[in-house]
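Render this sequence as a predicted structure.
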Amino acid sequence: MVEKFDAIVVGAGPSGNSAAYTLAKGGLKVLQIERGEYSGSKNVQGAIMYADALERIIPDFRDDAPLERHIIEQRIWLLGDDSYIGTNYRSDSFNSERPNRYTIIRAQFDKWFNEKVREAGALVICETTVTELLRDANGKVYGVRTDRENGEVHADVVIMADGVNALLARRADLQPELPPENAALAVKEIHFIDPALIEQRFQVKGDEGVVIEMMGKVTGGMVGTAFLYTNKESLTIGIGCLISDFKEKGIAPYKLLEDLKNHPVIKPLIQGGEVKEYAGHLIPEGGYKAVPQVCGDGWMVVGDAAHLNNAAHREGSNLAMTSGRFAAETLIELKKQGKAPVAANLALYKKKLDESFVMKDLKKYKNLPEIMHMSPQFFSAYPDLLNGAAHNLFTVDNVDKKTKENQILKSFAKRRSLFGLVGDAFKLARAFR
């Protein structure tokens, strides 16, 4: 006989683990299927974990979760050829008993989270690939087929948390092909380094940490950002751009990363580190307009598979964990009410998303992806102009400040024209309104 579950969760990343854990804690019979050797085995990169989203799932996670550093400072830099101009926010209030953000090593964190899923009572099967959804004559999903012998498993609902490629949904014609302009390819390295050097270079102590987000010349005029995170004994450095831009420009991702590491501003920060890990990772960047149908008869999609990523604020893990929790809570509520998991009832999941910060934030920035993709000057011209303006203004010579201001204004007008400057200002206002 084919075994039957209340829910099958495909994938064991943040969204899949959140869904499986919440379902198991709610008393449902849950099967979680992961194609890796273990949860996190395919992830070597560092990441940012947002405490509020996880705390709503596991309130006491700080007791034993493998956390790296809690973030006390956020820096945003626009890089020129050999300089940067930027801003930062640092607050001692982030040194609380319940810090707001942490850096994590995904391989360690995902493994810990999945152990919590097992402890909650879910059955977790790894090294298994789900090849397709099982659907009846009316199109309702009633299970999955895996690459194992006799690998058919049934469930009331299948929750797909299989990443940005969303292979299951695409094979079942529940989602279209992923457009290259709706995803970014990020390449990352972890550099192991003496913690004393981290404290010295970033002016932190204990488990305090710093995050640096960067734009500018290092992306080669493409739409993208770079980042540098402090971990306990390592630094995570990486850069990502839209796949469509990589294709158009013909620039290799690893070349961008090498240029970033050798930038005069960045090189001193990572000097003395030893590269231990390298990875590439796809990130959904389409925003609100790229979010597909998130539920139907017997199925839901969560996390990256549902394109839930806030590119404006570089938030992903909190959206992933929240969507996984919402999907699980939806099924738990329907079970208690004796309602079937058909599309009309599972629409409660979409309602939860729409009423939360997840979709409200994505809707706020719904125009940002299109505007950024059509406006490469935000990633090339303006970082150049702003760095040049700062260099001119802060160079003390025989030129008076009024003349310097006029020179700066002329440089902007020459590079973008008055009409272009006004148009760009309008685009930014439209993107961030």
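Summary. The radius of gyration is 23 Å. The mean pLDDT is 93.
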